[in-house]
Amino acid sequence: MALFVPVNFMKRKNTVLLATPYGLWITGFTIIPLLMVVYYGFTSRSTGVLTLDNIKLISTPENLKALWLSVQLSLLSTFLCLLIAYPLAMILRNMKAKSNSFMVMLFIMPMWMNSLLRIVAWQNILEKRGILNTFLSFLHLPALEIINTPAAIVFGMVYDFLPFMILPLYNTLVKIDENVINAAHDLGAGNFYTFIKIIFPLSIPGVVSGITMVFVPSLTTFVISDILGGSKVLLIGNVIEQQFQKLNNWNSGSGLSLVLMVFVLLSMTLVAKYDKGEGRTNVL
Amino acid sequence: MYCKMKHFGQKLYLGIVMLFLYAPIFVLIVLSFNRSKSRSKWGGFTTKWYSSMFSDDTIWIALRDTLVIAVLSALIATLLGTLAAIGINRMRKLPRSVMLGITNIPMLNAEIVTGISLMLLFLATGLELGFATVLLSHVAFNVPYVILSVMPKLQQTNRSTYEAALDLGATPAKAFFLVVLPDIFPGVLSGFLLAFTLSLDDFIITHFTRGASVNTLSTLIYSETRKGIKPEMYALSTLLFVSVFVLLIIVNRAGAKQDKKKAALS
Q: Span B206-222, mean pLDDT?
């Protein structure tokens, strides 16, 4: 570590210099690549002249339909994730401290099985003659036909992204001081009021960070819709992926990506407003 | 009575969500023992996929590349990220919030956009898509997670201990390795593990930056989703999953024992 020796780290300036490699790195691998998307998005493929045509591509009926469907499905799956994860995080919080790190681990463990394979397994379960329908017919119940429909895609989104809702929620809920809750009870608030007035408001950073961590990947996925939607349901992610991988049209793909970025930026501002970097830190 | 009911209700709810999360994993494990190659028919019990997987070169090469990329990208990201965190931590307010803001981009941005943007960069600079570009891309999306794990630890450490070490004659390097690093090490380690895990499971960014020459397990699986996934892949994934599961349970138990000891001592 000869590099370190002559430098005096008492001086702020010298310590700050340690961030230089990273500064260069993010310039090269985060900022410039994004600027390239902007460049391709606003230039014509054939002539290279400035144009809005690539952005306008979003207004064709099929692209608009894909975007609208993506927005609907991702909002629905985000809502369902919140609905499932909140009570779960509350239960985990209230469990005795001894067992709860183990329980939290059990909820993260599934991520160690390749996520694509897990989605493929859902295909097996939800198929027409899949495991679920075999089970239902065994119980003499009518079969469910959800494979290759938007419902199956929502199912996959909720499954794939649920842990990203559970973890930030759990992390903020577990930090709430038990004394604050006890104080509310002592002052006469029932369980319901304590929740509405104390617990929920204190958990909002976790809620916001969970919402963005589910909403953005759901909105932009092309894998889940590919596997569980057959090729029958197109989301905006599929449209963009095809522009790049099948049609090799970087300009229109970039243009559509920029439209998608508007939604991402919206959720980034939402995070910046509420989250002070606490909810997301502990993803493992 | 009410309390018992409530307790039972909570357990039931946990159980149902657990079932939801583990059902597909259970299916995959069962498929790894299925004699029939079809994924919807049960053809009887077999362990042949577990032995034939060792002679399947495509799978082994993909596994090797996946692991090499995950380890290397996590190591590079940890080094780059830890240095960056130390530097950023000492910055004044404005540059600090600018740096942290940019750091947030790869985490909050859509993976498809990150993948596309990196692909455009590589193609425009004339780099051939392959192992190196995948590695660079994995470092790019991993570093922010390392910084985010190390930052809180740095803020908890007391700077006076570092200064005291210097006063007592340690070189800055010695003071760093003996005083600061042990304090922030849990953050560095969890950053490394997080980076490793994310790299291992990444599909989207690899899909756009890999070209045709290199496959990770994820991209191999994706290419097989249409024509049917090889049963050897189920076997390998089951093996990986079960080993990590057992490992984590052991670590967790060991951690719990240590906590007990600590509690008993205090």
A: 92
SS3 A104: helix
Q: Find which of A98, A111, A116, A118 to mutate to test the B interface (most B CBs within 10 Å of its CB).
A: A116
Tokens of B263: 């509690």
Answer yes or no: is pLDDT of A62 > 50: yes
For every residue of B30-77, DSSP letters joined together read HHHTBSSSSSSS---B--HHHHHGGG-HHHHHHHHHHHHHHHHHHHHH
Rounded mean pLDDT, A180-193? 88
CA angle A51/A53/A56 to nearest 5° reads 130
How is residue B171 annotated by DSSP?
A: -
Chain A residue with Cα closest to B104 = A268
Domain architecture of chain B: domains with CATH: 57-241 (1.10.3720.10)
Where in chain A are the domains?
1-41, 55-274
Q: Is B146 on the interface with A (CB under 8 A)?
A: no
Q: Which CATH superfamily is domain A55-274 in?
A: MetI-like (1.10.3720.10)
Q: How far apart are CA A91 and CA A121, in angstroms?
A: 28
Average pLDDT, integer, range B247-261: 76
CA distance A70 to B111: 15
User: What is the per-residue pLDDT for A284?
Assistant: 37
B150-190 pLDDT per residue, tens: 998 888 888 888 888 888 988 888 888 888 899 899 999 99
A237 pLDDT more than 60: yes
Q: How many CB pairs under 8 A join A and B?
A: 248
Q: Share the mean pLDDT of chain B.
A: 89
| ipTM associated with this complex | 0.86
d(CA A112, CA B200): 9
Contact at CB, A102 and B83, closer than 8 angstroms: no
| CB neighbour list of residue A110: distance below 8 Å, 6 or more residues apart | A118, A163, B21, B22, B25
pLDDT tens figures, B101-147: 889 888 888 999 999 999 999 999 998 999 999 999 999 999 999 99
Task: Supply φ then ψ for residue A78, to 5 degrees.
Answer: -65, -45
* Residues in A touching B190 (Cβ below 8 Å): 282, 284
Which tokens sit at B85?
A: 């965190």
DSSP lists the bridge partners of residue A43 as: A50
The helix-helix angle for A97-108 and A61-94 (nearest 10°) equals 160
* Whether A218 contacts A157, CB under 8 Å: yes
User: Smallest Cβ distance to B83: which of A19, A118, A122?
Assistant: A19
Most distant CA pair in chain A, distance: 79
Both tokens assigned to B14: 């946990």
pLDDT at A270 over 50: yes
The answer to whether the CB atoms of A162 and B21 lie below 8 A apart is yes
Element (H, E) at B246: helix B231-265
CA B243 remoteness from chain centre: 16
Q: DSSP secondary structure string, A168-204?
A: HHHHHHHHS-HHHHHHHHHTT--HHHHIIIIIHHHHH
